[in-house]
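Collaborator request log, item 7. Partner lab (contact: R.S.) asked for a structural prediction of HAD-IIB family hydrolase to inform their binding assays.
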Amino acid sequence: MNGHKPQKTTLRPYDDVNQTQFIVYADLDETFYSHQITNEEETSIKAFENYMECLVKRHQVLFGVITGSNLDSVIQKLENGSHQIMPHFIACDLGTMLYWVNKNGEFLPDQAWVDRLMKTNFTQSTVNAIIQNLESLYNIEMTAQTQLGSSSFKKNYYYYMIDDHTDTKNIEMIRDLAHNQELGCNINICNPLAGDPEGAYDVDFIPQNTGKAAIIEFINQKFQVDRENTFAFGDSGNDLEMLSKVEHGYLLDNATIDAKKQHEKITTDPYTKGILNILKEHFPM
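Returned to partner:
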């Protein structure tokens, strides 16, 4: 955002889309990227990329990832996995940062999105004040997360479960304090398969009017794509609002039990195979 040399990927990018007609969004961890890549998943990734290349050329499909991970982590996961092609865009840090991948493999920030961020009052000191009040006034203990890396516009914590009554009251208090400071706050049960602890909630503080769902609204409007031509895929509770912003929103077969209880559309297969089969239903070749 400040003129530094852009980060690059060793993966090749998808072809440019001249006139976007469809958009496909996918969560990263345990959706587009499996933390335990099997031989079957490697085959599915290759099949997905081959199919997506055809969709880009024949149907002007734009494809991107929306994730809680930071950009360094996204690049590392996709380059070290079995992926060969980088998506058109990466919305990282829980949908607070948006980058477009150019033909040279460089990640360029979306300036209009940057302008939106700079108008918010999100600061580390504001988040620190919320955490301090939670602990000193309400005896609600929060544990800072470190595995996703630091971000100027996203601060992550864990809240460890106590009992249903206490958790409900405490989560409501966390949301209230964030709202009073005009911050966004996402709270969802952790998914251990994505590297989180069991028996805990993810608590993410972000600027208002940002996040996974806001990214989808922003990109759909940017390219003037009709809702009926939008797809999204996820695996956990923090993807549900994102799925509600598209016409074709699916949880994958490997999604968390809690998330599946709250969403009707679920694929019959996990990971990229689940995504691929849904796309084949809508774009037969």
